[in-house]
Amino acid sequence: MLRKLLTALVLVSMVAVFFALPVLAESLSGKVEVNSWWTAGGEAEGLNALIKIYESKYPDVEFINATVAGGAGTNAKAVFKTRMLGGDPPDTFQVHAGHELIDTWVVPGYVQPLTDLYKSEGWTNSMPQGVLDIVSYQGDYWSVPVNIHRSNVLWFNKTIFTKYEITPPSNFDQFFEVCDKLKAKGIVPFVMGTKEGWEAGHVFESVLLGKLGADDYKGLWTGEVKWSDPRVTDALETFAKIASYLNTDHSALTWDEAGQYLLKDKGAMMIMGDWTNGWFMSVGFEDYGWAPSPNTAGIFLALSDSFALPKGCKNQENVVAWLKVLGSKEGQYGFNKAKGSIPARTDVDISDYNDYLKSAAKDWQKDAISPSVVHGAAASEGWSTEYKDIISLFVSKPDVSYAQKALITAAEEYLKK
Amino acid sequence: MRLKRDKLMPILFIMPSVITVGVFVYGFISWTGFISFTKWNDVLPNYTLIGFENYRKLFANMRFQIDLRNTLVFTVIFVISCLLIGLLLAIFLDQKIKSEGIFRNLFLLPMAISFVVSGVIWRWLFNPGSIQLGNIGVNQLFEKLGLNFLTCGWYTDPKIGIIAVAIAAIWQFSGYTMALYLAGLRGIPIELREASAIDGADKWQIFYYIIFPLLRPITFGAIIILGHISLKIFDLVVAMTGSGPAFSCDVPALFMYDTTFRGNHFAQGASIAIILLLLISLLIIPYLISTFRKEA
């Protein structure tokens, strides 16, 4: 009995080796551990689309999908940071392109440059300059962007707009006219959910952009424009006025719960990133229109999710293969279709994406690109956290001079570094 | 020789725990204390000493000011309510009622539930309602009872946010306080009550002059336990509300997590930890002193 078993075992292992050898010779094996915060809805589907492509190309690599739940990645970031500082980095991790990538990881020297990969894959030609700018530092590229989201979008309910013969406002005067008109009809003119603390900061960055324009808005974050500028005061006053048209229960709602007002024809407008488009699709709402937020036509306030390569990761070859999938046409097409964003590459065929995404992709190619602050592109994490706290408090206690003073102090502290 | 070994053995046995506690508790407390005086407010460690700069900034920070006020309100409401409700329940249970065991366990049960679970449940109960669903949870109950004036935004109302969180915490810990008091009541010799009754004291006088003074050590212990829970509360707030509108539900521990891991301000996070430690010592040290006195 024992001998039979042994013989069988030897035979099986010989067969296994026979079949395994050619596979080992031509492809990768082992593991790859990918850390992200994509656990919900379209995000998770997008990630799964990427994993499918990767697994079909490298069937012998064990894919470890190490996601950490939590909005905007707060909890996930705590986990990566602990691991990176402790010298046990994941193979690759999700990070917002821009200052979050550069200030947190590149400058302290935790990640490897990817310039060679960019050249060998031709990404320097297939990605627009605006993207290349936010992933580069001192002449090198540092992460692979998978998607682009737009932050400054004004969404509106078409039924309400048609009923009261309203055209989408393109500047703040028109915006407030529309607000007054709708308020008189008993409709909530502008909805917002502020439960998670970042949403107000999100709307305010669009207001800032509208008041300062693309270049001077960018200047706020580089120190070329002072936060004591009267236009910042104007932006705060405008934002306080916007807040007076809000749904009263905003602090109980997340952005999508607030979006219910639009779905029920009870609220008319909201400013939110274009993941809203994916959310409208997922709840089957089609009666929506979009426009750039007031005064920001021709400017694309962008944010991008990307993946970086830590120094000292354990499965270098497997990760590089993963990064190649992320940057490939196939990967960008599949991921963004599911997530409801546009590809960072400009040469991906998106003719079967929905109307909003097509229009966003068109704007992406011709608009001036500005970095979003709430979503990590414009300022370091420390600064954007403080900005978010100040604006979040401002919604409940709209004290313009106090908020501006706090913004000036924060800017002084972080520009010094 | 024999005597020496007698002395040596206990020391040997106690060494492992002394060393572990020394390193992992006191060692890390000192390390946190050290970090709080450094410039490490970025990802990369920076051990340049800057004195009390982190503390100065912290006390000037509006979020931290709100947090301290919230902690004060929360602690006062939580501790006092727990003591009153706990004492009341204990007195009821002490009336030799039937199936006392069932009630005792019923009141104690909430303590066995994790803060995260009760946080989520209370978030549902205190949901302010929405345009789709109308009033739900506690607000719906008020509506059905015709007490519409009592419905409110609960944890979404910046004025009372922290009180809503305190109610959840009171629900969880008043049963525990009851158990403490019940043990105290049972520890009071029946002769004392009988003697005072014979001396002509009525029920109220017995409580006021005999029982309450004898329960004082229990009250003292309960204040310590409840007080330190309220100072380090974190999980309940995270699960139930997060920071809340205008930080109305925010607590120092939540700010510490945010500023350390979201904002990369490691030194600032360390100084919040040290301030929390000092606040807790305000409660614990008098307790330790009184315990030592008793033992001496």
Automatic annotation (TrEMBL), chain A:
Record-linked InterPro entries: Bact_solute-bd_prot1, SBP
Compartments (UniProt record): Periplasm
Superkingdom per UniProt: Bacteria
One cellular-component annotation, GO: periplasmic space
SUPFAM superfamilies: Periplasmic binding protein-like II
Major site of localization recorded for this protein: periplasm
Record key words, sorted: Signal, Transport
Free-text function comment from the UniProt entry: Part of a binding-protein-dependent transport system for a sugar.
Family from the record: Belongs to the bacterial solute-binding protein 1 family.
Protein name: Probable sugar-binding periplasmic protein
UniProt organism field: Candidatus Infernicultor aquiphilus
Upper lineage: Bacteria, Pseudomonadati, Atribacterota, Candidatus Phoenicimicrobiia, Candidatus Pheonicimicrobiales
From TrEMBL, chain B:
Statement: the UniProt record of this protein carries the keyword Flavoprotein: no
Any GO CC annotation of this UniProt entry: plasma membrane
BP GO terms, sorted: transmembrane transport
Residues that span the membrane, as ranges: 12-37, 72-93, 105-125, 160-185, 206-230, 269-289
Subcellular location: Cell membrane
Membrane disposition: Multi-pass membrane protein
Record key words, sorted: Cell membrane, Membrane, Transmembrane, Transmembrane helix, Transport
InterPro entries: ABC_transporter_permease, MetI-like, MetI-like_sf
Pfam (any one): BPD_transp_1
ABC transmembrane type-1 domain segment(s): 68-289
Superkingdom in the source lineage: Bacteria
Presence of keyword Ubl conjugation: no
Family: Belongs to the binding-protein-dependent transport system permease family.
Protein name: Sugar ABC transporter permease
Native source organism of the sequence: Candidatus Infernicultor aquiphilus
Taxonomy of the source species: Bacteria, Pseudomonadati, Atribacterota, Candidatus Phoenicimicrobiia, Candidatus Pheonicimicrobiales
